[in-house]
Design goal:
Order of helices and strands: EHEHEHEEHH
CATH superfamily: TT1751-like domain
InterPro entries: DUF302, TT1751-like_sf, UCP021774
CATH architecture: 2-Layer Sandwich
Pfam families: DUF302
Number of helices: 5
Protein name: DUF302 domain-containing protein
Structural class: alpha+beta
Helix content: 40-55%
Length: about 130
Amino acid sequence: MYSFSTRLTGKINEIETKLIDALKEEGFGILTEIDVQATLKKKLGLEKRPYKILGACNPTLANQAIDAEPDIGLLLPCNVVIREEEDGTIAVAFMDPEAVLNLVDRDDVADLAKEVRSRLLRVREVVGGSVMK
């Protein structure tokens, strides 16, 4: 698996705010925000449910990873997806940093990946639970 997630009920804007606040509590900032729904509407004229990709980064841990392996930036930032499902629930999915960063095959990077994963798991708990998808 390359991700872990949770599904919630509620308003997507409120869940997104709670998600961003929880990420900040774990030392992550949002470097990028891609509004897929708006982009597909603008570029292709398609009507889609809300779908955003947030590029989350913990600068301290990212710096350690880049110091260990300069090309690791190809695998950063940690993407978090928030989207509305057909049934109206809100899915929040997290890239699993262990799955992705273990591509580097270095013990020091694997240790960093475990730390990042544990922080993202705590964010998932704060946002809404431990439901695995």
